[in-house]
């Protein structure tokens, strides 16, 4: 059984066009994905995207953005 996701493209002014891949709600807890966790992606071919956690060391903990005041 598979889950479908939608890619969202956000346009902010210039040429910066980040894309976001939405993780379906049932998959996040099953994979123990946490908010802000770093995931690496790779392309095997134009139909296959592989994802993996960036690592389990101190550098892989969820990142927190600093507020600009």
Structure description:
With 69 residues, this protein is mainly beta. It has one domain. 7% of the residues lie in helices and 28% in strands. It contains one helix and four strands; from the N terminus they run ββαββ. The protein has one helix at residues 27-31, and strands at residues 7-9, 19-21, 39-45, 48-53. Strands 1-2 form a two-stranded antiparallel sheet. The radius of gyration is 15 Å and the shape is globular.
Features:
globular, 69 residues, disordered C terminus, 1 helix
Secondary structure: number of strands: 4
**Structural class label:** mainly beta
User: What Rg is obtained from the alpha carbons, in whole angstroms?
Assistant: 15 Å
pLDDT below 50 for ≥5 consecutive residues: which ranges? 60-67
**Biggest sheet, spatial arrangement of strands:** 1-2
Strand-helix topology:
Blueprint lengths: L6 E3 L9 E3 L5 H5 L7 E7 L2 E6 L16
Antiparallel strand pairs: 1-2, 3-4
What is the gist of this entry?
The chain is mostly beta strands. It has one helix spanning 27-31; strands spanning 7-9, 19-21, 39-45, 48-53.
């Amino acid at each position: 059984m598979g889950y479908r996701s939608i890619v969202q493209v956000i346009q902010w002014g210039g040429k910066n066009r980040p894309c976001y891949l939405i993780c379906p709600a049932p998959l996040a807890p099953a994979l123990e994905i946490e908010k802000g966790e770093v995931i690496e992606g790779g392309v095997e071919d134009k139909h296959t995207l592989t994802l993996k956690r960036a690592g389990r060391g101190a550098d892989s903990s969820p990142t927190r953005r600093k507020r600009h005041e």
